[in-house]
Write a structure and sequence with these properties.
The chain is of the alpha+beta class. The protein folds into three domains: 12-103, Nucleic acid-binding proteins (OB fold (Dihydrolipoamide Acetyltransferase, E2P), Beta Barrel), CATH 2.40.50.140; 137-178 and 209-270 and 422-539, Bira Bifunctional Protein, Domain 2 (BirA Bifunctional Protein, domain 2, 2-Layer Sandwich), CATH 3.30.930; 290-411, GAD-like domain (Gyrase A, domain 2), CATH 3.30.1360.30. It has 18 helices and 22 strands. The strands form five sheets. The chain has an eight-stranded mixed sheet, with helices on both faces. A five-stranded mixed beta barrel has the order 1-2-3-5-4. A five-stranded antiparallel sheet has the order 12-13-16-14-15. Helix 4 crosses helix 16 (531-539) and helix 14 runs antiparallel to helix 15. The longest helix has 23 residues, at 134-156. The chain is globular and about 95 Å long. The N and C termini lie far apart (64 Å). The structure holds aspartic acid. Residues 173, 195, 197, 481-483, 526-528 line the site of aspartic acid.
């Protein structure tokens, strides 16, 4: 038996027990007569004591132990003379009677400590060592807990977890597919699922009216900190439901996860239409932990000979409460920020609302105190506040103001990580015009149902049609999204028409789904949550990578196993993929 206990288990009540322990050497301290070794495993750290006077050869061996050696010991639990309140086993130590080195270790390339000296790249290359560190381990434990709580909640509501295949053909979620060549069908390819969308809908046709799955999805997109080429969703679908049923079921899930895992009571999930979200916050995922809503000053400020405003389509303002305390230098810095390429504004106008009621703007040449007073009343500003104005094309100005609003929210400390503000964004547009391809794209995916009351617009003004689609947003992060689906063959086929598919293309790609709709498809709808993202929100980190055991880097590489990699000619040949280099040239 390698161990009778783990290294996190022994307490004062175990004193005088004979135990055996196994684990890794965290560190050893040679204090002359006594040598102390911290023995670590997943569960904690236990101090081992070797007394030169009791057993000198054992002490000698202990002194030779290097960091990360794997050892097994036998010994007696003793009360420590100097106790360590910081660790659970801090009241005891083991007086070792037997030591076996199970495996030696090279000196690790970085320290296995909470605060390591290893850089990102190095830790990823030796991820198996990084995973020994507490913060990473705690993240994976959190992930496990969230997964388990999800399964509990879903199971209690009669949802069945059903696996769907990975080797499929394209599911349109708006990204590129990863493709896998088929050896048995030379020249043909599978696509890895961007989501199990079509399969979960087929399961509804089959009568599994409550389905879920914690499932890998694959999207070949450019990567950012919160994106991975393979990521995990909590994927869900229900039959015989309306939008309201789905909203209630899944705000229930999120509330359950918060209370089970974080012991936090989530406030009621607010609701907002897409149109209002764009108008008031310039974003379809507003952070509503703070107010700072957009005010439209377009009518008010035009016609005063200020060319920039006169030429703009829209002039938008926000009121920063208490913002008048910002120095000129700080405002200059904010101006530099909005001018960075990622925000893209040309400049920033401001108006200070001084404590004495006087107003001081950066465009005093064009606007007198009376005119500025109208800005103040439109923006509900109080003495001590600061108004910022951005102008330009409506869509651009909204998006720039969204960036500025979030920036100011952070600066004024209104985005506290311990406050959670959940929000349903509802009534998304069904379609989105794509300038490049000069046609409509599905904003969500092509299986999303238009709102009944907007059906007539499908022919006359498709861009105005709203969908039964919803996103769940927490603190400005979209954590889930879904829709009520089309379950009628004719409507589905009209949808493919609208999206510019020919009849043949639609049939070839999605004929199976449309056929299924002819055999008794129930009304249905669903949602999928970004599981990695929920983990990162719960853990309070920006990056989902911290919650994935073996993540890819920003170029989609696994630097530990060095993938992707070349395959040899024989393998390519077998797949019918061998490139004829001479022909290539
Ligand atoms: N399949 C969708 C997605 O991955 C979610 C849904 O509509 O249920 O975003």
């Amino acid at each position: 038996m390698y161990r009778s206990h783990t290294n996190g288990e022994l307490r004062i009540e175990h004193v005088n027990q004979e135990v055996s322990l196994s684990g890794w050497v965290q560190k050893s301290r040679d204090l002359g007569g006594m040598t102390f070794v911290d023995l670590r495993d997943r569960y904690g750290i236990t101090q081992l004591a070797f007394n030169e006077e009791i057993n000198s050869s054992l002490s000698d061996s202990a002194r030779k132990l290097g960091r990360e050696f794997v050892i097994q010991i036998k010994g007696t639990v003793k009360e420590r003379s100097s106790k360590n309140k910081n660790i659970a086993t801090g009241e005891i130590e083991i007086e070792v009677t037997e030591l076996i080195v199970l495996n030696e270790s090279k000196t690790p390339p970085f320290t296995i400590e909470d605060k390591t000296d290893g850089g990102d790249e190095l830790r990823m290359k030796y991820r198996y060592l990084d995973l020994r560190r507490n913060p990473v381990k705690e993240n994976l434990m959190l992930r496990h807990k969230i997964g388990l709580a999800t399964r509990n909640y879903m199971n209690n509501l009669d949802f069945l977890e059903i696996e769907t295949p990975f080797l499929i053909k394209s599911t349109p979620e708006g990204a590129r597919d990863f493709v896998v060549p088929s050896r048995m069908n030379e020249g043909q390819f599978y696509a890895l699922p961007q989501s199990p969308q079509t399969f979960k809908q087929l399961l509804m046709v089959s009568g599994y009216d409550r389905y879920f799955q914690i499932v890998k999805c694959f999207r070949d997109e450019d990567l950012r900190a919160d994106r991975q080429p393979e990521f995990t969703q909590i994927d869900c679908e229900m039959a015989f439901v309306e939008q309201e049923d789905i909203l209630q079921t899944f705000e229930g899930l999120i509330q359950y996860l918060f209370s089970e895992v974080l012991k936090v009571t989530l406030p009621d999930v607010k609701r907002m239409t897409y149109v209002d979200a764009m108008k008031n916050y310039g974003s379809d995922k507003p952070d509503i932990r703070f107010d700072m809503k957009f005010k439209y000053l377009t009518e008010l400020v035009k016609g005063k000979d200020f060319k920039i405003f006169d030429e703009a389509e829209e002039i938008i303002a926000i009121n920063v409460e208490g913002g008048n305390k910002l120095t000129r230098k700080e405002i200059d810095k904010i101006t530099d920020y909005v001018k960075t390429p990622q925000v893209g504004a040309k400049g920033l106008i401001y108006c200070r609302v001084n404590e004495d009621g006087t107003l001081k703007s950066s465009v005093d040449k064009f606007y007198n105190q009376d005119e500025l007073a109208k800005w103040v009343s439109t923006c509900d500003s109080k003495p001590g506040d600061l108004i910022f104005l951005l102008s330009g094309d409506t869509i651009k100005a909204q998006s720039q103001m969204n960036d500025l609003r979030l920036h100011m929210g952070t600066m004024m400390e209104l985005r506290d990580g311990k406050t959670f503000a959940p929000l349903w964004v509802l009534d998304f547009p069904l379609l989105e015009w794509d300038e490049d391809s000069n046609r409509f794209h599905a904003m969500h995916h092509p299986f999303t149902s238009p709102k009944k009351e907007d059906f007539d617009l499908l022919e006359s003004d498709p861009g105005k049609v709203r969908a039964n689609a919803y996103d769940l947003v927490i603190n400005g992060v979209e954590i889930g999204g879904g829709s009520i689906r089309i379950h009628d063959r004719d409507i589905q086929s009209r949808m493919f028409d609208l999206l510019g598919f020919t009849k043949e293309e639609a049939e070839a790609q999605f004929g199976f789904l449309m056929s299924a709709f002819e055999y008794g498809a129930p009304p249905h709808g669903g949602i999928a949550f970004g599981f990695d993202r929920i983990c990162s929100i719960f853990g309070g980190s920006e990056s989902i990578r911290d919650y994935i055991a073996f993540p890819k880097n920003n170029s989609g590489r696994d630097v530990m196993i060095d993938a992707p990699a070349n395959v040899d000619d024989a393998q390519l040949d077998e797949l019918g993929l061998k490139l004829d280099i001479s022909l290539e040239k």
